[in-house]
Amino acid sequence: MTAYTATVTVRLKRGVLDPEAETTQQALERLGFELSDLRSADRFEVDLDAADAGEAADRADEMAERLLANPTIHDYDVAVAER
Amino acid sequence: MTAYTATVTVRLKRGVLDPEAETTQQALERLGFELSDLRSADRFEVDLDAADAGEAADRADEMAERLLANPTIHDYDVAVAER
């Protein structure tokens, strides 16, 4: 078993309204920053032990499917690195 | 001017309690997943135009300092990529 950290990034799908990101963008603009867009995402770093990187990615993927992401409104991606 | 996307990742500092991450970890364990730790972070993807990658990173850094992160409880890092 090897120790891995799986990073799951959960984003809203294109077209889903994101009022938090919109408010953040407006606040930055009010502070004088120029930006053309801002998107927000949640990032989960999961430490787990697995036989290999593929197994770690599969398990992180299942965590995203079952709990971390809502497939109706979210896309997600998984990246795995040895710890 | 070139179009860049600056990704700002904002994490709680070590030692700062993260009840959301703890609850998420417990929920995953209740679903039968084995994991040794889970940390959550916020990720902001900022689209901006800048003369070069260094300027884009500097501006994203200032956005983090002034609004996106709270230096008392957060660490952050900035990564810049051409769009």
UniProtKB/TrEMBL annotation, chains A, B:
Q: Which GO terms describe its molecular function?
A: ATP binding; phosphoribosylformylglycinamidine synthase activity
Species this protein is from: Halorubrum trapanicum
Tell me the keywords, alphabetical order: ATP-binding, Cytoplasm, Ligase, Nucleotide-binding, Purine biosynthesis
Specify the enzyme's EC class, one word: ligase
Report the function annotation for this chain: Part of the phosphoribosylformylglycinamidine synthase complex involved in the purines biosynthetic pathway. Catalyzes the ATP-dependent conversion of formylglycinamide ribonucleotide (FGAR) and glutamine to yield formylglycinamidine ribonucleotide (FGAM) and glutamate. The FGAM synthase complex is composed of three subunits. PurQ produces an ammonia molecule by converting glutamine to glutamate. PurL transfers the ammonia molecule to FGAR to form FGAM in an ATP-dependent manner.
NCBIfam families recorded: phosphoribosylformylglycinamidine synthase subunit PurS (TIGR00302), PRK05974.1 (NF004630)
Protein name listed in UniProt:
Phosphoribosylformylglycinamidine synthase subunit PurS
Q: Which SUPFAM superfamilies match?
A: PurS-like
Catalyses: N(2)-formyl-N(1)-(5-phospho-beta-D-ribosyl)glycinamide + L-glutamine + ATP + H2O = 2-formamido-N(1)-(5-O-phospho-beta-D-ribosyl)acetamidine + L-glutamate + ADP + phosphate + H(+)
- Its EC number(s): 6.3.5.3
